[in-house]
Amino acid sequence: MIINLEFAPSLDLGILWRFEDSSMGLSRPSKASQKLAEKILPEVIDLVKPTAYIGFFPVQGFANRRLELENGLALTGGFIAHILGEAQEIAVIVCTIGNELEVRAKEYFAGGRPARGYILDALGTVALGNLAEDARSYTEARINERGLQASTPISPGHADWALSEQQILFKMLPTRETGVLLNSSFLMQPRKSLTMVLGLGKKMLTHAEGSQCEYCGLAKTCTYRRVPGDPWYPIKVPSEEASMKNV
Amino acid sequence: MSSQNDLLITALVDLEEDEFDRLFKDALAAGQEPLELLESCRKGMEIVGKRFETKEYFLVDLIMAAEIFKNASSQLEPKLIHSGKVDSAGTIVFGTVHGDIHDIGKDIVIAMLRGAGFTVHDLGVDAAPQAFIDKVIETDATVVGMTGLITISFDSMKDTIDALTAAGLRQRVKVMIGGGMVNEKVREHVGADAWGEDVVSAVALAHQLTGQMTEVI
Hints:
The complex is a heterodimer of chains A (247) and B (217).
Chain A: E1 2-6, H1 13-20, H2 31-47, E2 51-63, E3 66-69, E4 74-76, H3 78-84, E5 89-96, H4 100-110, H5 114-145, E6 149-150, H6 166-172, H7 175-178, E7 181-182, E8 188-189, E9 193-201, E10 243-246
Antiparallel strand pairs in A: 1-2, 1-10, 2-3, 2-5, 3-4, 5-9, 6-9, 7-8
Helix pairs in contact in A: 1-5, 2-5, 4-5
Chain B: H1 3-13, H2 17-29, H3 34-53, H4 59-83, E1 91-96, H5 104-115, E2 119-122, H6 129-139, E3 143-147, H7 152-166, E4 174-178, H8 184-190, E5 194-196, H9 199-209
Parallel strand pairs in B: 1-2, 1-3, 3-4, 4-5
Helix pairs in contact in B: 1-2, 1-3, 3-4, 4-5, 5-9, 6-7
């Protein structure tokens, strides 16, 4: 069963400046850049089309760093073992804000307005991150309703989970349904898209307890890090808010 | 340096685009030397670069300044070409390597390099090793810049440098790399001459690699 959800665009200039601040919270944006971001914001809201697709897939078993699924596919890696080893089922999520924003950003860059293109792109990243959190929170709430715990989400390309395993996730949520394509370098189109996997089980490492950001080599310096409990990333309560398109 | 030039530099540094445009138009109308105006703009960009290095300015501020500078320099270029006073700081071939399609970082670095006076040939994204070779031969470039945001790009960087060697071009060019996870280990692995961790260091490296700065890399 694949669920398709649409969410309202969620944008936060505070998160934008957090991502942009390489001093990790010690600097403030200039007046000029604040003014530009405020000017661009309505355009971003108009261009962003946040959509998520969620599929649930039963687990057959786990051995030798391989999570075998009942559909014959498997996910492999030490990170998989750590986060999903106890899962009886997994939820695979694909999120995208569509391609209109990246097309507009390209137009700005090509038209000699790179600052607008850059801020548009950066706000698109904020929107995608917020969409991912909305989708994660929604999925966790559905999982909790079943009396199970949801693991913290993980994505291919993080820790030792190979980026090439995007192919496996894309076999489970086919492009015909999601409109998100994977190229030969395992990069997604539209570019502002992401995938994540949550494990469902009786006892999982939940999102409130840990984040894949903590396993990354750039954890201490990455301005995009999202670790629950960080001052700029309060833990979100599982959400009911989303409009379900079809079941 | 006249007080009008000081005001122009301040407007650029403070990213006051409208004020800069007004002062710039007035200076052109008053017959100020184009080269002098260009130098004022470059001074402003240097100050902006320093504010970025000290983390007072974010990357978007650097880009805004580059945009103001580009608009001004494109108006000055015809006048400078006519007077025969255009000098390039060096020729660079720059691209996102094969297998990677990230372009925003590349576009920003190129804008900054052009702002610093370099002639930059942009190969775009997913640029194959042969594209780098062909453009180096065509332009007689002395610096090759490669960027990539995903780990797959490291192999492409190595392939490109190996291809430059096989084509007999490696001794003619200096190679700098940057992007995402690039660090000294990556530089060593791929065989590049230098790596930069951000936009401003890319400009400094370009100056060093073209022999315009004596600081050892």
